[in-house]
Amino acid sequence: MGVLGGMQLKTAGAVCVLTACIGYAASLTERQKYHRDVLLSLIQILELLAGEIRYERLTMAEVFRNMDKKYHGPAGETMRHIADRLVSSEYENLENVWSSAFRKDKKVLMLSEEELDILLDTGKNLGYLDVEAQMNHLYHCRQRLEQKLQEAQKSLDEKKRLYRYLAVAAGVMVILVLL
Known about the structure:
Layout: H1 3-56, H2 60-70, H3 74-88, H4 94-104, H5 106-109, H6 113-124, H7 131-178
């Protein structure tokens, strides 16, 4: 292998290292987007839940079964778990079902402790209060989640640039060390 072949091999290695660093930064950004999208989904679910409670006048098992049909995605899967448990056991406490479903799916939904606390608080009064009190409770929980969504979007915007710059810098550093 001559000098030219060695240079081509080094160039190919440098391209691979830089590509890997940029790919890793892109995966970190996608994780941030996923988290933001889950928060948005949860807000939409709370809005849908409020509508079902206010206008449909159904049992909570029926409400969650309807949501199961209307909503998809990771947050929708959590709603399916809740619906399944409520339908299968008419004596199970909604707060316990809600709480255990979100605790179980916390990692999949990428929820922080504070976000999980908001969701657990949401489940405390579902099905127990009158319709107006439940609506107020859902409204306040939704507002808190919207604040978390804004924070997640701001964090995503800041970290996206940071990840790109650090990925390129780390890739160049590795290339310089290897050359």
